[in-house]
Specification:
Largest interface: A-B, 60 and 60 residues
Strand order of the largest sheet of chain A: 1-3-2
Order of helices and strands of chain A: HHEHHEEHH
Number of helices of chain A: 6
Number of strands of chain A: 3
Radius of gyration of chain A: 18 Å
CATH class of chain A: Mainly Alpha
Distance between the termini of chain A: 23 Å
Largest sheet of chain A: 3 strands, antiparallel
Oligomer: homodimer
Helix content of chain A: 55-70%
Strand content of chain A: 5-15%
Structural class of chain A: mainly alpha
CATH topology of chain A: Arc Repressor Mutant, subunit A
Chain lengths: ~150, ~150
DNA sequence: TATTGTTATACTCTATAACTATA
DNA sequence: TATAGTTATAGAGTATAACAATA
Protein backbone atom coordinates (compact mmCIF):
# COMPACT_ATOMS: atom_id res chain seq x y z
CA UNK A 1 0.00 0.00 0.00
CA UNK A 2 1.37 3.38 -1.01
CA UNK A 3 0.21 5.90 1.56
CA UNK A 4 0.43 8.78 -0.89
CA UNK A 5 -2.14 7.24 -3.20
CA UNK A 6 -4.33 5.95 -0.37
CA UNK A 7 -7.57 7.84 -0.85
CA UNK A 8 -8.28 8.76 2.78
CA UNK A 9 -4.74 10.10 3.13
CA UNK A 10 -5.05 12.17 -0.04
CA UNK A 11 -8.34 13.62 1.11
CA UNK A 12 -6.93 14.47 4.54
CA UNK A 13 -3.95 16.31 3.07
CA UNK A 14 -6.12 18.03 0.50
CA UNK A 15 -8.71 19.09 3.03
CA UNK A 16 -6.08 20.47 5.36
CA UNK A 17 -4.69 22.58 2.56
CA UNK A 18 -8.09 23.90 1.48
CA UNK A 19 -9.00 24.66 5.09
CA UNK A 20 -5.80 26.60 5.44
CA UNK A 21 -6.71 28.73 2.41
CA UNK A 22 -9.93 29.77 4.06
CA UNK A 23 -8.58 30.02 7.59
CA UNK A 24 -6.00 32.51 6.36
CA UNK A 25 -8.92 34.81 5.82
CA UNK A 26 -11.16 34.33 8.85
CA UNK A 27 -8.40 33.61 11.34
CA UNK A 28 -5.38 35.61 10.32
CA UNK A 29 -7.23 38.65 9.02
CA UNK A 30 -10.31 38.67 11.25
CA UNK A 31 -9.25 36.77 14.37
CA UNK A 32 -12.04 34.20 14.23
CA UNK A 33 -11.72 30.53 15.12
CA UNK A 34 -13.12 27.93 12.76
CA UNK A 35 -16.11 27.36 15.04
CA UNK A 36 -16.86 31.06 15.35
CA UNK A 37 -16.65 31.45 11.59
CA UNK A 38 -19.07 28.58 11.07
CA UNK A 39 -21.57 29.96 13.57
CA UNK A 40 -21.45 33.40 11.97
CA UNK A 41 -21.83 31.95 8.48
CA UNK A 42 -24.78 29.83 9.54
CA UNK A 43 -26.45 32.72 11.36
CA UNK A 44 -25.93 35.16 8.53
CA UNK A 45 -28.17 33.20 6.20
CA UNK A 46 -30.76 32.45 8.84
CA UNK A 47 -31.83 35.54 10.71
CA UNK A 48 -32.98 34.38 14.13
CA UNK A 49 -32.63 30.69 15.00
CA UNK A 50 -32.38 28.23 17.85
CA UNK A 51 -29.04 26.77 18.91
CA UNK A 52 -30.08 23.33 17.73
CA UNK A 53 -30.40 24.68 14.22
CA UNK A 54 -26.83 25.98 14.34
CA UNK A 55 -25.59 22.63 15.57
CA UNK A 56 -27.24 20.94 12.64
CA UNK A 57 -26.01 23.43 10.05
CA UNK A 58 -22.40 23.61 11.19
CA UNK A 59 -21.69 19.96 12.05
CA UNK A 60 -20.35 21.13 15.41
CA UNK A 61 -21.01 19.62 18.83
CA UNK A 62 -23.36 21.50 21.15
CA UNK A 63 -20.42 22.23 23.41
CA UNK A 64 -18.38 23.79 20.64
CA UNK A 65 -21.35 25.91 19.60
CA UNK A 66 -21.97 26.94 23.20
CA UNK A 67 -18.41 28.18 23.54
CA UNK A 68 -18.24 29.88 20.17
CA UNK A 69 -21.53 31.64 20.89
CA UNK A 70 -20.27 32.80 24.28
CA UNK A 71 -17.21 34.37 22.70
CA UNK A 72 -19.18 35.97 19.87
CA UNK A 73 -21.66 37.41 22.35
CA UNK A 74 -18.86 38.76 24.52
CA UNK A 75 -17.38 40.43 21.44
CA UNK A 76 -20.69 42.01 20.50
CA UNK A 77 -21.14 40.08 17.27
CA UNK A 78 -24.37 38.32 18.16
CA UNK A 79 -27.13 38.41 20.75
CA UNK A 80 -29.04 35.70 22.57
CA UNK A 81 -32.76 36.17 23.11
CA UNK A 82 -34.90 33.94 25.29
CA UNK A 83 -36.84 31.43 23.22
CA UNK A 84 -40.57 31.99 23.85
CA UNK A 85 -41.31 28.42 22.77
CA UNK A 86 -38.73 26.73 25.00
CA UNK A 87 -37.47 28.20 28.24
CA UNK A 88 -34.35 26.05 28.14
CA UNK A 89 -33.04 27.42 24.86
CA UNK A 90 -32.10 30.61 23.12
CA UNK A 91 -32.69 32.36 19.87
CA UNK A 92 -29.50 33.62 18.27
CA UNK A 93 -29.17 36.59 15.98
CA UNK A 94 -26.24 38.44 14.46
CA UNK A 95 -25.77 42.01 15.62
CA UNK A 96 -24.78 44.73 13.14
CA UNK A 97 -21.11 44.23 14.02
CA UNK A 98 -21.47 40.53 13.23
CA UNK A 99 -23.21 41.24 9.96
CA UNK A 100 -20.53 43.75 9.01
CA UNK A 101 -17.80 41.25 9.77
CA UNK A 102 -19.57 38.61 7.74
CA UNK A 103 -19.98 41.03 4.83
CA UNK A 104 -16.24 41.60 4.85
CA UNK A 105 -15.23 37.94 5.07
CA UNK A 106 -17.63 36.46 2.54
CA UNK A 107 -16.31 38.06 -0.65
CA UNK A 108 -12.77 37.11 0.29
CA UNK A 109 -13.49 33.45 0.98
CA UNK A 110 -15.78 33.21 -2.01
CA UNK A 111 -13.03 34.58 -4.22
CA UNK A 112 -10.82 31.80 -2.96
CA UNK A 113 -13.46 29.18 -3.56
CA UNK A 114 -13.94 30.52 -7.09
CA UNK A 115 -10.22 30.46 -7.77
CA UNK A 116 -10.11 26.83 -6.68
CA UNK A 117 -13.13 25.65 -8.64
CA UNK A 118 -12.10 27.52 -11.77
CA UNK A 119 -9.48 24.80 -12.13
CA UNK A 120 -12.29 22.47 -13.17
CA UNK A 121 -14.49 22.31 -16.23
CA UNK A 122 -18.25 22.46 -15.55
CA UNK A 123 -18.71 18.74 -16.19
CA UNK A 124 -15.79 17.90 -13.90
CA UNK A 125 -17.36 20.02 -11.21
CA UNK A 126 -20.61 18.11 -11.56
CA UNK A 127 -18.89 14.77 -11.28
CA UNK A 128 -16.91 15.95 -8.27
CA UNK A 129 -20.08 17.17 -6.63
CA UNK A 130 -21.89 13.87 -7.10
CA UNK A 131 -18.83 11.87 -6.13
CA UNK A 132 -18.50 13.71 -2.83
CA UNK A 133 -22.14 13.09 -2.07
CA UNK A 134 -21.91 9.37 -2.81
CA UNK A 135 -18.63 8.88 -0.98
CA UNK A 136 -19.93 10.80 1.98
CA UNK A 137 -22.93 8.51 2.29
CA UNK A 138 -20.70 5.45 2.23
CA UNK A 139 -18.35 6.95 4.78
CA UNK A 140 -21.27 7.54 7.08
CA UNK A 141 -22.23 3.90 6.78
CA UNK A 142 -18.74 2.88 7.85
CA UNK A 143 -18.61 5.34 10.72
CA UNK A 144 -21.93 4.14 12.05
CA UNK A 145 -21.08 0.46 11.85
CA UNK A 146 -17.81 1.14 13.73
CA UNK B 1 -23.58 32.30 0.92
CA UNK B 2 -24.91 28.95 2.04
CA UNK B 3 -22.29 27.36 4.23
CA UNK B 4 -23.48 23.85 3.49
CA UNK B 5 -22.76 24.21 -0.21
CA UNK B 6 -19.53 26.14 0.34
CA UNK B 7 -16.89 23.88 -1.14
CA UNK B 8 -14.23 24.19 1.58
CA UNK B 9 -16.85 23.43 4.21
CA UNK B 10 -18.10 20.38 2.34
CA UNK B 11 -14.56 19.09 1.95
CA UNK B 12 -13.80 19.63 5.63
CA UNK B 13 -16.89 17.71 6.76
CA UNK B 14 -16.29 14.99 4.21
CA UNK B 15 -12.64 14.60 5.11
CA UNK B 16 -13.42 14.42 8.81
CA UNK B 17 -15.87 11.63 8.15
CA UNK B 18 -13.48 9.65 5.94
CA UNK B 19 -10.68 10.09 8.47
CA UNK B 20 -12.95 8.74 11.15
CA UNK B 21 -13.61 5.61 9.08
CA UNK B 22 -9.90 4.89 8.94
CA UNK B 23 -9.10 6.03 12.47
CA UNK B 24 -11.65 3.56 13.79
CA UNK B 25 -9.26 0.89 12.59
CA UNK B 26 -5.81 2.15 13.52
CA UNK B 27 -6.82 3.99 16.68
CA UNK B 28 -9.69 2.09 18.24
CA UNK B 29 -8.52 -1.40 17.27
CA UNK B 30 -4.76 -0.94 17.33
CA UNK B 31 -4.15 2.01 19.64
CA UNK B 32 -2.17 4.05 17.14
CA UNK B 33 -2.35 7.81 16.72
CA UNK B 34 -2.74 9.26 13.27
CA UNK B 35 0.92 10.29 13.18
CA UNK B 36 2.11 6.87 14.30
CA UNK B 37 -0.04 5.22 11.65
CA UNK B 38 1.37 7.47 8.94
CA UNK B 39 4.96 6.79 10.00
CA UNK B 40 4.36 3.04 10.02
CA UNK B 41 2.63 3.14 6.64
CA UNK B 42 5.43 5.18 5.11
CA UNK B 43 8.13 2.95 6.60
CA UNK B 44 6.43 -0.26 5.54
CA UNK B 45 6.81 0.53 1.89
CA UNK B 46 10.32 1.87 2.24
CA UNK B 47 12.56 -0.48 4.16
CA UNK B 48 15.23 1.71 5.74
CA UNK B 49 15.02 5.48 5.31
CA UNK B 50 16.07 8.79 6.78
CA UNK B 51 13.73 10.86 8.92
CA UNK B 52 13.58 13.54 6.24
CA UNK B 53 12.07 11.02 3.86
CA UNK B 54 9.31 10.22 6.35
CA UNK B 55 8.58 13.90 6.82
CA UNK B 56 8.19 14.29 3.07
CA UNK B 57 6.03 11.19 2.64
CA UNK B 58 3.68 11.80 5.53
CA UNK B 59 3.15 15.58 5.32
CA UNK B 60 3.99 15.78 9.03
CA UNK B 61 6.24 18.29 10.77
CA UNK B 62 9.66 17.13 11.91
CA UNK B 63 8.53 17.52 15.51
CA UNK B 64 5.49 15.31 15.02
CA UNK B 65 7.62 12.68 13.33
CA UNK B 66 10.21 12.89 16.09
CA UNK B 67 7.58 12.21 18.74
CA UNK B 68 5.77 9.50 16.82
CA UNK B 69 9.08 7.75 16.18
CA UNK B 70 10.02 7.98 19.86
CA UNK B 71 6.76 6.29 20.86
CA UNK B 72 7.03 3.62 18.18
CA UNK B 73 10.62 2.89 19.21
CA UNK B 74 9.61 2.66 22.86
CA UNK B 75 6.87 0.19 21.89
CA UNK B 76 9.31 -1.96 19.93
CA UNK B 77 7.72 -1.32 16.54
CA UNK B 78 10.69 0.29 14.86
CA UNK B 79 14.40 0.82 15.38
CA UNK B 80 16.70 3.77 14.79
CA UNK B 81 20.13 3.14 13.34
CA UNK B 82 22.86 5.76 13.05
CA UNK B 83 23.05 7.20 9.54
CA UNK B 84 26.56 6.53 8.18
CA UNK B 85 26.18 9.40 5.71
CA UNK B 86 25.05 12.01 8.23
CA UNK B 87 25.96 11.89 11.91
CA UNK B 88 23.04 14.17 12.80
CA UNK B 89 20.37 11.88 11.50
CA UNK B 90 18.99 8.39 11.78
CA UNK B 91 17.89 5.58 9.58
CA UNK B 92 14.51 4.19 10.54
CA UNK B 93 13.32 0.67 9.99
CA UNK B 94 10.25 -1.28 11.05
CA UNK B 95 10.89 -4.16 13.43
CA UNK B 96 9.01 -7.47 13.01
CA UNK B 97 6.38 -6.32 15.51
CA UNK B 98 5.84 -3.19 13.45
CA UNK B 99 5.59 -5.16 10.24
CA UNK B 100 3.12 -7.54 11.83
CA UNK B 101 0.98 -4.67 13.03
CA UNK B 102 1.07 -3.09 9.59
CA UNK B 103 0.09 -6.38 7.99
CA UNK B 104 -2.97 -6.52 10.22
CA UNK B 105 -4.08 -2.93 9.68
CA UNK B 106 -3.61 -2.68 5.93
CA UNK B 107 -6.27 -5.13 4.74
CA UNK B 108 -8.80 -3.56 7.07
CA UNK B 109 -8.23 0.01 5.94
CA UNK B 110 -7.96 -1.05 2.33
CA UNK B 111 -11.31 -2.80 2.60
CA UNK B 112 -12.77 0.46 3.82
CA UNK B 113 -11.17 2.42 1.01
CA UNK B 114 -12.55 -0.10 -1.49
CA UNK B 115 -16.03 0.12 -0.02
CA UNK B 116 -15.91 3.89 -0.39
CA UNK B 117 -14.58 3.98 -3.93
CA UNK B 118 -16.95 1.26 -5.11
CA UNK B 119 -19.62 3.94 -4.90
CA UNK B 120 -18.09 5.46 -8.03
CA UNK B 121 -17.94 4.31 -11.63
CA UNK B 122 -14.42 4.02 -13.10
CA UNK B 123 -14.78 7.20 -15.11
CA UNK B 124 -16.06 9.09 -12.09
CA UNK B 125 -13.07 7.88 -10.15
CA UNK B 126 -10.76 9.19 -12.83
CA UNK B 127 -12.40 12.59 -12.85
CA UNK B 128 -12.26 12.74 -9.06
CA UNK B 129 -8.61 11.84 -9.11
CA UNK B 130 -7.71 14.54 -11.59
CA UNK B 131 -9.95 17.08 -9.88
CA UNK B 132 -8.24 16.54 -6.55
CA UNK B 133 -4.85 17.00 -8.15
CA UNK B 134 -5.84 20.22 -9.88
CA UNK B 135 -7.64 21.67 -6.88
CA UNK B 136 -4.75 20.77 -4.65
CA UNK B 137 -2.32 22.68 -6.83
CA UNK B 138 -4.54 25.76 -6.74
CA UNK B 139 -4.95 25.49 -2.99
CA UNK B 140 -1.20 25.43 -2.60
CA UNK B 141 -0.95 28.62 -4.63
CA UNK B 142 -3.40 30.31 -2.27
CA UNK B 143 -1.69 29.02 0.85
CA UNK B 144 1.67 30.26 -0.34
CA UNK B 145 0.47 33.70 -1.30
CA UNK B 146 -1.16 34.09 2.12
C1' DT C 1 26.53 29.55 9.04
C1' DA C 2 23.00 26.12 7.97
C1' DT C 3 20.72 21.81 8.88
C1' DT C 4 18.97 17.52 11.52
C1' DG C 5 16.48 16.09 14.98
C1' DT C 6 15.08 16.80 20.11
C1' DT C 7 13.10 19.22 23.75
C1' DA C 8 10.40 22.94 26.12
C1' DT C 9 6.53 25.58 26.55
C1' DA C 10 2.28 27.47 26.09
C1' DC C 11 -1.73 27.19 23.75
C1' DT C 12 -5.72 25.32 21.49
C1' DC C 13 -8.76 21.62 20.64
C1' DT C 14 -11.26 17.48 21.90
C1' DA C 15 -13.98 14.12 24.47
C1' DT C 16 -16.56 12.73 28.28
C1' DA C 17 -19.46 13.55 31.39
C1' DA C 18 -21.59 16.03 35.18
C1' DC C 19 -24.70 19.59 35.91
C1' DT C 20 -28.92 23.25 35.71
C1' DA C 21 -33.01 24.37 34.25
C1' DT C 22 -36.95 23.32 31.73
C1' DA C 23 -40.23 20.03 29.04
C1' DT D 1 -37.74 10.83 32.44
C1' DA D 2 -35.79 13.34 28.66
C1' DT D 3 -33.81 17.39 26.51
C1' DA D 4 -31.22 22.18 25.80
C1' DG D 5 -27.46 24.23 26.87
C1' DT D 6 -23.41 25.14 30.23
C1' DT D 7 -19.48 24.04 32.75
C1' DA D 8 -15.52 21.14 34.38
C1' DT D 9 -11.65 18.71 33.51
C1' DA D 10 -8.32 15.94 31.66
C1' DG D 11 -6.06 14.47 27.66
C1' DA D 12 -4.49 15.13 22.93
C1' DG D 13 -2.85 17.79 19.47
C1' DT D 14 -0.53 22.29 17.69
C1' DA D 15 2.79 26.00 17.00
C1' DT D 16 6.95 28.48 18.06
C1' DA D 17 11.13 28.52 19.08
C1' DA D 18 15.29 27.32 21.62
C1' DC D 19 18.73 23.93 21.60
C1' DA D 20 22.78 20.35 20.77
C1' DA D 21 25.23 18.00 17.46
C1' DT D 22 26.90 17.82 13.01
C1' DA D 23 27.52 19.56 8.06
Amino acid sequence: MDIQSFFPYRIAVFSERVSQCIAQVYRERFGLTRDEWRVIAALAEAGKVRTAWIIDKTTLEKMQVSRAVARLERDGLLERLPDPDDGRGWLLRLLPAGKALYAKVVPMVQARETFLLDALAPDEREVLDRALTKLSERAEVLVRQG
